[in-house]
Amino acid sequence: MTVTVKNLTKNYGEIKALKGVSFDVASGELFGLIGPDGAGKTTLFRILTSLLLQDDGEAKVHGFDVVADYREIRKIIGYMPGRFSLYQDLTVEENLNFFATIFNTTVEENYQLIRDIYHQIAPFKTRRAGDLSGGMKQKLALSCALIHKPEILILDEPTTGVDAVSRREFWDMLARLRASGLTILVSTPYMDEASRCDRVALMDRGKILSINTPAGISDEFSRPLYAVKADRRYQLLKTLRSYPYTRSVFTFGELAHYTDSRDDFDPEMLRSHLEQEGLRDVRVELINPGVEDTLISLMTTESESIVDGNKFGKSGE
Length: 317
Hints:
By secondary structure, the chain is α/β, with parallel strands linked by helices.
């Protein structure tokens, strides 16, 4: 395995950022960490890149321990933090040359690694990095992370804050890098990007809730899922949440994703109930769950177990 993480724990005072995280990443795999802000993704990546010490557990990258062998790890990884961290007063060309020099190489020596990316920013090579657009900054940062020919690439929310076209182009670049044999770890809060990964780990509040292929994650959704739509979205949600047979309901754009607590659920009964409550143009359709549906379901289950545990603790005192 290229990356091995076992029972990793990290606390910031009373805040438990990582709670016994474990997973493996195979060589040549594009592995995604999917979860909301505060899930622990950045803390985990900072530990894997030897920039932060864990409180407990162990992590290895290509067999090197992240604490004892940090010098070796820094030679073989390319890291792109979530916040743009290149020198904004240097030009595109100067940033690339600087990072190549740090690793005792040159842009010319490893140009084939960044050719497909760099040709998009080459027209702006004399422009200061701080003056680039969000998408161009990400391409420059990726080029700088690749210029020393790393064995593993670690990207912390690389597409946050860029437009939809730039996001798609960035993931197309990652697909080409993965096809060349590079191992990639990438985190994102965007559920639609999960489908571009070989496997994904769903994270929330310092814990990994599930690890599977994107299709496998979707298959973990345990009940039939329905998309419900009506003429007034707020009234629809309010009515569904007060419906006695509702198991879960969450908004997805103009739709509500709904599960029912009954095993013999009849969608027509729900449609009739909503119309009786004054809603119009009601549609109730069976749909296939996605990664986001599974994540929300797992997060909800986890929250309920925490609440139940707290109640149990109080009653046992």
